[in-house]
């Protein structure tokens, strides 16, 4: 789902991004394997302990300095220096995710103009791999945090619901690079997933209620049984300098 924030030696990131449409075969989602960079993320502010090591913090800080060109903050235009991101079909959504105040756990809404290193750690914490020391409660919170981040990417108008239009938009963008898939097929996948979501929650709605979109609670139900904990993460790799970032 995410393009690489990397130098010449990328890591790999893979996320299940599409719930299976009713009647579709295969896995419960569509895997989008994209390289995310040479750093993994976590933060001492993360909801899921344990905190990162000093080496990991240092590694992420070097990456932050590369992107910011040694400034104290990163702005949206700094992401223009990432070549692989240029061709990602959901580039704008990826960049917005880093500046979305909902992901930064800020009380206000909207997009931040810039983020500092602490904000950067907060965003990267959503991609940390699962920890063997986590208990059941921590794992559940860990999973919920990751799905909340993913939900925010779909919910572009930040109203707490994913409408059919929003879902179609993401699906069509994600699949736009597939020359073998027609736009109508992508739309059919989105429509099927919306129908599935509606069928999940329709029993909880009153007779006069109208289904207006996927809420976060609906989203959680749609992802039951899908292993988001191990799919949505970033692995450590050695980082090489990015000459054009200086």
From TrEMBL:
It comes from the Eukaryota. Residues 142-177 form the EF-hand domain. One of its GO terms (molecular function) is calcium ion binding. Residues 22-52 are annotated as: Disordered. It is a lipid-anchor. InterPro entries: CHP3, EF-hand-dom_pair, EF_Hand_1_Ca_BS, EF_hand_dom. GO terms for biological process: cell differentiation. Gene3D superfamilies: EF-hand. The keyword Transcription regulation does not apply. The keyword Calcium applies. Keywords: Calcium, Cell membrane, Cell projection, Cytoplasm, Differentiation, Lipoprotein, Membrane, Metal-binding, Myristate, Nucleus, Protein kinase inhibitor. It is found in: Cell projection, Lamellipodium; Cell projection, Ruffle membrane; Cytoplasm; Membrane. Residues 29-46 have a biased composition (Low complexity). Belongs to the calcineurin regulatory subunit family. CHP subfamily. This is Calcineurin B homologous protein 3. It comes from Apteryx owenii.
């Amino acid at each position: 789902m995410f393009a690489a924030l990397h130098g010449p030696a990328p890591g790999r990131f893979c996320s299940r991004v599409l719930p299976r449409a009713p009647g579709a075969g295969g896995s419960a989602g569509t895997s989008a394997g994209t390289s995310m960079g040479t750093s993994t993320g976590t933060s001492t502010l993360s909801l899921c302990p344990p905190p990162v090591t000093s080496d990991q913090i240092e590694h992420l800080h070097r990456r932050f300095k590369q992107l910011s060109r040694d400034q104290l903050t990163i702005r949206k235009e700094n992401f223009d220096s990432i070549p692989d991101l240029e061709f990602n079909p959901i580039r704008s959504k990826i960049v917005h995710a880093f500046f979305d105040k909902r992901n930064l756990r800020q009380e206000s809404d909207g997009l931040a103009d810039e983020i500092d290193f602490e904000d950067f750690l907060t965003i990267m914490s959503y991609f940390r791999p699962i920890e063997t020391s986590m208990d059941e409660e921590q794992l559940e919170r860990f999973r919920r945090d990751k799905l909340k981040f993913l939900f925010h990417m779909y919910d572009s108008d930040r109203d707490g619901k994913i409408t059919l239009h929003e879902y179609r938009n993401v699906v069509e963008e994600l699949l736009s690079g597939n020359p073998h898939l027609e736009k109508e097929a992508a739309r059919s996948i989105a429509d099927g997933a919306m129908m599935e979501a509606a069928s999940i929650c329709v029993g909880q709605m009153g007779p006069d209620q109208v289904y207006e979109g996927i809420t976060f609670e609906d989203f959680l139900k749609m992802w039951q049984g899908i292993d988001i904990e191990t799919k949505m993460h970033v692995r450590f790799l050695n980082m090489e300098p990015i000459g054009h970032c200086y």
